[in-house]
Every structure is written in structure tokens, then in C-alpha cells.
Design goal:
- With 135 residues, this protein is α+β, with helices and mostly antiparallel strands.
- 31% of the residues lie in helices and 30% in strands.
- The chain has a five-stranded mixed barrel with strand order 1-2-3-5-4.
- A hairpin with a 2-residue loop joins strand 2 and strand 3.
- The longest helix has 19 residues.
- It starts with a helix and ends in an 8-residue tail after the last strand.
Length: 135
């Protein structure tokens, strides 16, 4: 077999092996990692949130997912008793805590703020040791 034949055979074998094993699996991107954290957190009864405003237009609240803080968009009407109480809790002149424990539903859909930060969607339904909510 000539050198040219060997080169062709070797190239064909390399192509076959590459096709047989498939492309290497790409590592998960950041959004995939956030979705995986949401799946884990959805099993928890209580979610930890904090008020952490930024100078940009991103939402001022964050939610803890697997030990990491993520900006949170609320899936609740602004005039709902829960949202009013949450705003009052952080705006009160005597507010000492900027952290909250809430029950609610984490959604799997993600959004982004104007600066591109991923927003987790959360529908708060109940305080855990917090202000009482009256309808």
C-alpha cells in the first residue's frame, strides 16, 4: 500500500471514529445551571430571599438557589397583599432585616434584565415568620 493510500485510509478511519463517538457533549451553559438549581429548590418548602438593590435596573430582590444568589422577578401582581407587605418590609424606616423566608412557587422560565443578568421567576404565597398578610 502506498503512502497516499495509507493517508486516505487513516483519514477515513479517523472520520469514522469521530462519527461513531459523536461530538463531545458541551458543558452546561449558565442558564442550564440556573435551571438545575431551580429544580432542586422547587423541592424545598421555604425559599430564602434578600433585598439587595443595585444601581442598575435589575430587580432589587435575590433568591438563594444552591448557595448562590440570583436576581428574582416576582410572578405576582404589584398590588397583591404579598407584594405590598414585601415592599413595606424593606421600606420601613425601622427595617433591620433585609432577608426573608417565604413559601411560594419557583417557575422554570428564565428572563433577563436590561444588563443581561438572568432573572429567576418566583410567585410568593406566604411569609415564614414575617408580616401577616391580610386580603
Amino acid at each position: 500500500m502506498s503512502a497516499a493510500s495509507w493517508s486516505v485510509a487513516l483519514a477515513a478511519a479517523a472520520a469514522f471514529v469521530a462519527c461513531a463517538t459523536g461530538a463531545p457533549k458541551a458543558p452546561p451553559d449558565y442558564a442550564d445551571r440556573v435551571r438545575a438549581r431551580i429544580e432542586v429548590a422547587q423541592q424545598l418548602e421555604v425559599q430564602r430571599l434578600r433585598f439587595n438593590p443595585t444601581p442598575c435596573s435589575c430587580p432589587p430582590f435575590e433568591i438563594a438557589l444552591d448557595g448562590r444568589w440570583h436576581r428574582v422577578a416576582f410572578d405576582a401582581p404589584e398590588d397583591s397583599p404579598m407584594m405590598i407587605a414585601l415592599r413595606q418590609a424593606v421600606e420601613a424606616p425601622t427595617a433591620t432585616s433585609r432577608g426573608f423566608e417565604l413559601r411560594g412557587r419557583l417557575r422554570e422560565n428564565l428572563a433577563t434584565c436590561a444588563r443581561g443578568a438572568i432573572l429567576v421567576t418566583f410567585n410568593p404565597t406566604e411569609w415564614v415568620d414575617g408580616p401577616s398578610i391580610e386580603d
